[in-house]
Fold this protein.
Amino acid sequence: MSDWPDLSGRLEEGGHVLPVRVYYEDTDFTGIVYHGAYVRFFERARSDFLRLMGIHHADMASGAHGASLAFAVRSMTLDFQKPARIDDVLEVHTSLAEYKGARIRLDQLIHRGDELLVSAAVTVAVITGEGRPTRLPQILSERLQNHAPSENIDN
């Protein structure tokens, strides 16, 4: 199997960028991206942002760092500016806005070229296998802290 280093996008100063192409399955009957598809684009970008920092969902779930852990979306606010269309190539930008205790807040933007199409403010909780909020293990917390604005870290 080939190694595709760009499949997960790339880390940049201030966050992560993931390219996404709009396929037929992402659109409604008019060829415009269905609003729910943006949620999937944002989810992929958040997962790849964490993956490139060495924070893997499968490792967390298996208990590789102690207890079984997962991320759960607590809240998400979307602001739709302009529509994307079939075959568009989009960029999903993800940045860590705040990291405190079990709560991680991310800002996400979807652009087509220079045009902002959709923005999202997402709050994610770190939870145990039983669904209780908890802090990330120290090793994972340190990886995340390297990408957080220094005034917004509280561990």
User: Anything to note?
Assistant: The CA atoms of residues 19 and 120 lie 17 Å apart. The radius of gyration is 16 Å. The longest strand covers residues 115-128.
